[in-house]
Amino acid sequence: MARDTTDFRPIEGVDELVEHLAEGNKPRDKWRIGTEHEKFPFYVDGNAPVPYGGERGIRAILEGMQSKLGWDPIIDDGRIIGLVEPTGQGAISLEPGGQFELSGAPLETIHQTCREGNAHLAQVREIAEPMGIRFLGLGGSPKWSLAETPKMPKSRYEIMTRYMPKVGTKGLDMMYRTCTIQVNLDFESEADMRRKMQVSLKLQPLSTALFANSPFTDSHPNGLQSWRGDIWRDTDNQRSGLLEFCFSPEFGFADYVEWALDVPMYFVIRDGHYHDMTHITFRQFMAGAARNEVPDGLPTMGDWANHLSTLFPDVRLKRFLEMRGADGGPWRRICALPAFWVGLLYDEAALDAAEALTSSWSYKEVLAMRNAVPEQGISAPFRNTTLREIARDVMVISRMGLKNRGRKNRDGYDETSFLNTLDEVVARGTTSAEEMLSAYHTRWGGSIEPVFMEYAY
Asked: Which pathway does it operate in (predicted)?
């Protein structure tokens, strides 16, 4: 998230929080695709991490991008920590370890999404390459220890860094040493949201498997295909993971609100200052628990929007749905991830088929799949088959959905071609992580350094 929200409307009751989510309902002709992708900056000389400051640091890249794009700076305690397009059509932000993120504009087609991603990568390369900086498209930092990883000067991250070790063993690795690609998608009603939430929660482990791309940690194989996927199993289980209550046939906006109310907060912003609120839940905040701690110590709608942005389930509900299961990856994956989910969720026949395929999958079965994927990838078992075989069926559905959408580019091609990189994973039966591990043990000669050449933007 590029910029935390300031909306000073007071909250009168829980119904307003439910209505905040329901305001996301949109007619189908207004549905859009918002793609986010992160990457690790590194110095070509020595494959070292890039700090925030200095003439060749993250701040200098942001300032160069600001000059090139004319976007507005996002300032935190006097320091530039991101950029936002003046009309809200996209933003650039920093993750805690300097991971450089584009939060894309809400677009109508995958063709536009892919052009946006390619343009961004060209722009940031133009600024960064004269500084000797390139970017790595992986799901996990392959070389630098946590201690070696830079820390970005962003107030919310200071609060999270103090809090994470209290609630899990891997939260700091999640913050500082992982990257993702995700897509944000719309719904037209509460019933449509429910269908999409349930289908995408059940298929999120498959997404993790198809995009598994983080097999190295601290310069060595870590025994996993998706280290990032494993990290999310013990980051902060109060606010992340697979949400069982979402599997209910009656699941709706109010259920998500009730869950979110009882998750500890991270912060509130008053007069530009971030106040640590990790000791109370939002429900307690609404009951007056912070009256004597912060100015205007009663909650606002901005506080609620910010709280929703600090919840990390596999699929996050705001006024849209966020698909959060995939590792970061090379540029082709930036286009493939939104294509995969748009194909499944934005065509009625495809959504019907995906729902029929997954309707009998129980929470326990999906959780077991989710737990198996970080190590086993698409070879993970499910019932009497494997995820690779499930993937064959799901890819057919996604391709059908994209074909039915009929969104063609100037050359007459529809969006189905963006799935080709995932078709290759299924056809080979090996993930990107397994391909990297094979290279490590053969032509890379037991070194992870070549990854900075082969997976760099």
From this structure: Sulfur metabolism; glutathione biosynthesis; glutathione from L-cysteine and L-glutamate: step 1/2
